[in-house]
Specification:
- With about 200 residues, the protein is an all-alpha fold.
- The chain is rod-shaped.
């Protein structure tokens, strides 16, 4: 047997159901908080991002980078000498001349037990004394540069300053041996300035 198909609800019943559903929605909406009541907490609020420009960067970074580069150059021994070309040539010529005079004086001292004679107006003796002082000063400056930069003096134009530096070290080393030989062979040290009645006049 066929079951009877359900009859559709009358239109009045459908209208009542729709009206009831609308009333329920309106009642729920009246109890919900308004949209303006929702606020963001400061911790959750989105903070605007400030773009970092070149003007906003600290200036000390440039100084720190410059100091870092300078220190790296000093450690690697790439610091150039403070002497100019003219000063290097003058120091090289003077150092070479002083070292040559000192080596000649040491040879005379080794053979005779006395240094160079005073000469006319004491010019030869004065040149000898100034040469000794100049060689010691040049060696001292070379050692100071070696300690500070890790290398000796620059060679200079034509290698003049490098030659003077080498001769100065040679003169100092030779002077040490001559000093020992002077005491051993002659038993006395000549006076720096010739004096009357001295061993060397």
């Amino acid at each position: 047997m066929k079951r009877p198909s359900p009859r559709a609800a009358p239109p009045t019943a459908q209208c009542c159901r729709a009206a009831c559903a609308l009333l329920v929605l309106l009642a729920l909406a009246s109890h919900l908080p308004s949209v303006g009541s929702f606020t963001l907490e400061p911790s959750l609020a989105v903070r605007p991002k400030i773009p970092i420009t070149a003007a906003s960067k600290p200036r000390c970074t440039h100084r720190q980078s410059a100091l870092t580069k300078l220190r790296s150059k000093e450690e690697s021994g790439d610091v150039e000498s403070a002497l100019g070309e003219a000063e290097t040539v003058i120091l090289g010529v003077a150092g070479t001349a002083a070292s040559s005079i000192m080596l000649y004086s040491e040879s005379v001292l080794f053979r005779t037990g006395c240094g160079l004679p005073a000469g006319p107006l004491g010019l030869v003796g004065a040149a000898e004394g100034i040469s000794y002082l100049g060689v010691v000063a040049l060696v001292g400056y070379s050692v100071f540069t070696k300690v500070r930069t890790g290398k000796g003096l620059p060679a200079g134009p034509g290698g003049i300053l490098g030659a003077a530096e080498g001769l100065a070290y040679l003169a100092v080393v030779a002077g040490s041996f001559v000093l020992i030989a002077q005491i051993t062979n002659f038993g006395y040290m000549p006076n720096a300035v010739p004096m009357e009645g001295g061993m060397c006049q």
